Amino acid sequence: MASKNPVKMDAVKEGLTVFLDETIEVIGVSVGSGVSDQPMSDLETLQGAESRVKNTQIQFPDYDFYVGIEGGVEESVSGLMAFAWIVISNGVTTGKARTAGFFLPPEVARLVHQGMELGDADDVVFRKSNSKQQNGAVGLLTNDVITRKSLYLPAVQMAFIPFLNPELYSDYLLGASH
Fold it and tell me: Residue 7 and residue 9: Cα distance in Å, rounded?
């Protein structure tokens, strides 16, 4: 797992455990994403998740799966939308999925546009500390009805689909960037 964030690690463990017949261990490591600290587009966010997977594979070559989760934002005519990309690879097959997206409050969006990372902007607006390692923006905005973990969970599971149905997916297409 290309992160030591406990929320991301829990989402991966819970998301993949339902598909694997064995107990899994998620080991979190810190690797670079190769993108901005706060990705500002869908493409940059996906590139960050892909880079985290590649960098983890290079540093730790003998594991069964590699997972990268990258949170990002993208401006639209309706406002600044937050989401995350999940990429899972075993070195041959790669699966990708994106979480649901949600619009950020204008004050949070303003701070992000000024260069602040989303988690830090959330902490300022909601008067919290280290919310990105807890419930995140989605938890703060939904009173924890949807948490950061529950937002990631379906996307982790959807990114694993090619591993469940290898005969239906082309490794060449899945491994290709974008």
Answer: 5
